[in-house]
Amino acid sequence: MPGIATSCGFQPETAPQTPCGVLFYGSIFDVYGLQHRAPTMPTPYTTLISASELAGLNDPFIVDCSHDLAQPDEGRQAYAQAHIPGAIFLHLDDDLSAPKTGRNGRHPLPDPDAFAAMLGRLGLHQHQQVVAYDRSGGSFAVRLWWMLRWLGHDAVAVLDGGWPAWTRAGGASENTPPHARMPAHFERRASLVGAVSADRVLDSLQYAKLLVVDARAPERYAGEVEPIDPVGGHIPGARNRFFQTNLQADGTFKSREQLREEYTALLEDWDPRDVIHHCGSGVTGCHNVLAMMHAGMDGSLLYPGSWSEWCAEPSRPVATGPAPGKA
Predict the structure, then answer these.
(1) pLDDT at 251 over 70
(2) Mapped to the 3 state alphabet, what secondary structure does the chain carry?
(3) Could you tell me which of 130, 138, 182 has the C-alpha nearest to residue 162?
(4) How many degrees, rounded to 5, is the angle at CA 239 between CA 236 and CA 307?
(5) pLDDT by residue (tens digit) across 114-169?
(6) pLDDT reading at 21 higher than 60
(7) Hey, what's the torsion of the CAs at 123, 127, 132, 138, to 10 degrees?
(8) Nearest alpha carbon to residue 285 among 241, 317, 319
(9) Domains of the chain (ranges, CATH numbers)
């Protein structure tokens, strides 16, 4: 029988194209046997959600975004072993990125309308609460969080602490694919986040219009090591805020107050709306966007192409060392 290959398996063409979906009933601990209720979200979660808050939701759209840059199949394998009941799996490379050209970074953004259509086929409704999680302190789940806000979807949050926090709280798990949701109407709306191009970043350096913040590890920022991209260093003038410093020892985010204090010190007199976040490929930079928003510092921007796109063009300037360098 002819079929359709997807990141979650192979489905006959006669089946709904929702290979990873699930139709929820009641809370996530009550997934069978009741009459379906349309999703309702009077007060959406828009940054973080705790394990206990997730357990009490009606009809959440849960997405496992687990990934490992060094072992791209690791996230899918972890999902197959155990995941939150009803969660679908979306792969960073296959589902949350467009094809690479060698000049557009390692994880270029997909076409927004095509991405919205895919989510609709998977059963996501307009205004439905989405919860993204991973096994790495939110470092990959934030990509889906940002992308949904990019599509104008406000009701999306990252599970604070991810899979480890869920299991610590005694949350249930399953290792079988969820029941497919019926396809739903989901369309792109006005974006809730800002994205900038490499040219705008370069212009901002020349005229000191915007502050660039680099989310990579300090040794990569300094150019001391570069395990992934062909060139080490950072965008001249960029300040370093390693995304993992947003987290506590248990993998959950620091308090709003502590994050606000730390980002205020980092930004000094810069308005949050004049801040551009970037990282290696437009993924963990979203972690800093979320942290600032959670701290009440809204409006910061993302350079999705990030360092992997920036360093692919030899004419773009590069700085090395622990200091920002001259913009």
Answers:
(1) yes
(2) CCEEEECCEEEECCCCCCCCCCCCCCCCCCCCCCCCCCCCCCCCCCCEECHHHHHCCCCCEEEECCCCCCCCCHHHHHHHHCECCCCEECCCCCCCCCCCCCCCCCCCCCCHHHHHHHHHHCCCCCCCCEEEECCCCCCCHHHHHHHHHHCCCCCEEEECCHHHHHHHCCCCCECCCCCCCCCCCCCCCCCCCEECCHHHHHHHHHHCCCEEEECCCHHHHHCCCCCCCCCCCECCCCEECCHHHHECCCCCECCHHHHHHHHHHHHCCCCHHHEEEECCCCCCHHHHHHHHHHCCCCCCEECCCHHHHHCCCCCCCCECCCCCCCC
(3) 138
(4) 60
(5) 999 999 999 999 999 999 999 999 999 999 999 999 999 999 999 999 999 999 99
(6) no
(7) 160
(8) 241
(9) 13-168 (3.40.250.10), 194-310 (3.40.250.10)
User: Residue 42 corresponds to which amino acid?
Assistant: P
Encode pLDDT of 208-219 as tens digits.
889 999 999 999
Distance CA(275)–CA(273), nearest Å, equals 6
pTM for this model (two decimals): 0.87
Burial class (CB in 10 A: 0-12, 13-18, 19+), 10: exposed
Q: Which of 200, 276, 7, 219 is nearest to 122 (CA)?
A: 7
The answer, yes or no, to whether residue 16 has pLDDT greater than 80, is no
Catalytic amino acids?
279
Within 10 Å of residue 118's Cβ, how many Cβ atoms? 17
Contacts of 170 (CB under 8 A, 6+ apart): none
What mean pLDDT comes out for the span 197-217? Answer: 94
Phi, psi dihedrals of residue 253, rounded to the nearest 5° = -70, 150
Cα separation, 239 vs 324, in Å, equals 6
131 in Cβ contact with 61 (< 8 Å): yes
